[in-house]
């Protein structure tokens, strides 16, 4: 190396050394500043915090300058290394409140790829995880840390390959645990920071055990940050388990309301059958808006989306639910995010954490399960410093309970009235859609059942009262021709009915209340209305549930599923356990009155088998009648062709009958003998054929014996059993006459104890039941043995 080049090399080395020293110094200062960060001060902007230059640049370039309330409180604590349990309103900027400390913590520890996984961020849903990942990419763009997204719905193998190269992982609980269990070299023992975002949602979704299992795999020495928009008891329980001496930061408790001030909130009271009319009218009057519409189930979402698309309200419609594939969900998420005016029909999958920009309205057509879910749903609008509107549809039966729950959670909400003159009825259109398109009808039936089921399964019975729902009217407003039968509602109703005393209704005559087609099953003569238990019992008696009924229902269900599958998006359409609860209404297959056998029980399996056995059918089949056909082919009784006088002169009827039977018996006897002779001849013919065949086979065998004699020992085994069995089969097949002949033959076939087959060299050992033959030495011996064997046959 020349002197000049050496000098240059040394200079660059020195520069690098200096840089390293500077960086180390910066880190030291940062660390010191963080540890000494005064917590009693009010920080307004990110610049005031001891953050790395790279993070500051990332924040600035993403236009994050001023901090939100939760960020002001939580970030300084987290920078000092404390565990934080944060609660803040929706859209208040919780994501940055945990992402900044995560990046800073690893940066201050000079984390590199060689150090492996340093931080885990767990979110309840894939969408939320993706969203967090995007924010991390934005603010961490200047850092050299690597970050990965580990969510379900993607190839595990690809993830397994890359997961170990990541410093920060954003993941959903299930997939993370899967990697902990399955990915061989996945190491979590160096984790510095754990974040649980939307902790309440994680627990709601039933991930408690998964989270506990994950936490068990993590080192105890770590920092944990836990955030949620609502503080529930289960969140506090989880915090107790996973956080160490945490700092509790709540912005909700500080404020008068638990929802953003810029959010205007209203509710309206309507009846269930009016809901879709009101929603349709709302869309018609808010065409230039971005609206998120919440419904209780995937099936509801699909039905409303499909039918409204066909009704063309004039606004772009989208739908989002958990049964869609991940790619489809993302596509819709991005589409709705980028659209200025659109309606997104969604389940609670879109309720939490999702940051759709500039949503004007959140309309809750089906009431949320509780006040917490309400807060999350409305939190999709009025985010950060934007304003927004929320509208909640409540049934009369839900109003009181839900209002009380919202008041308790400090949700300011006012009642508004629906102008019936401005409401457009779409019931007729829906009916015609269901009539024209069976798939829409099936979807409607599913939507109907899933809605009723969702109400039935709600835990807060002070709000949700399934037995007060106007079920039949609701089915009609969905356009359904009848009301699908639902077992659980009947159960609830009958429970309710048993609590009530029977009422007296004069002149009551009931048509079947469960059947949409109004099948008249119960006709009550008395004036007393029996309670529903008795009605149910009687209905069952009149319409027993046989195996056939069940098969019919099952068949119908699969038909439904096929149609249903075809309908929307051709997406994965998992059939839920819900189907088990559905009893589809079947057409009226009642027997006509004359064929009806009242009080007849359905047959048991054993009885049914007996009744359908051939023996039983033959035994009980009606005896044939002798008829004479005339020239035109018409049947006539025998006596119609006889002169009655001549018939009577031949003697009395009984003796004539006896004589006839005797005569016929003789004929039958003769015929029987002929039949037997024919049968015997046939059997003998068969036997001869068999013998010839056997002889041929033996000859063939002997030939092969001769050829193989040089290589194989000549032991042949003949099982005496086989011979006896053959004889027995013959015996069974024979008639009595043949008995003697056959038993003689059998004696001949059964060999004596020591039969000399080959000059006294062969032995039949009866105990061992086999014939032992001395190996013939010469060709002559073999021929002699073959001849003897043939002769024995
Ligand atoms: N300091 C900030 N300056 C400007 N915008 C911010 C700031 N912090 C957050 N935001 C914006 O506010 C919106 C809401 O933030 P974020 O999604 O973090 O809220 P959140 O509290 O997690 O909401 P949710 O509880 O609904 O999940 C986002 O669009 C985000 O970009």
From TrEMBL:
Region Disordered: list its residue ranges. 491-543, 726-760
Q: Which reaction is this enzyme known to catalyze?
A: ATP + H2O = ADP + phosphate + H(+)
Q: What UniProt keywords are attached to this protein's entry?
A: ATP-binding, Coiled coil, Helicase, Hydrolase, Nucleotide-binding, Ribosome biogenesis, RNA-binding, rRNA processing
Q: Which residue windows does the record flag with biased composition (Acidic residues)?
A: 730-739
Record-annotated Helicase C-terminal domain positions: 275-424
Q: Which GO terms describe its molecular function?
A: ATP binding; ATP hydrolysis activity; RNA binding; RNA helicase activity
Stated EC number for the protein is 3.6.4.13
Q: What region holds the DEAD-box RNA helicase Q domain?
A: 44-72
From start to end residue, where is composition biased (Basic and acidic residues)? 534-543
This protein's GO cellular component annotations are:
nucleolus
Kindly list any coiled-coil regions of this protein.
13-40
Q: Which domain of life is it from?
A: Eukaryota
Entry's localization field: Nucleus, Nucleolus
State what this protein does: RNA helicase.
Q: Which family does it belong to?
A: Belongs to the DEAD box helicase family.
Listed PANTHER family: RNA HELICASE (PTHR24031)
What is the recorded name of this protein? ATP-dependent RNA helicase
Recorded source organism is Rhizophagus irregularis (strain DAOM 197198w)
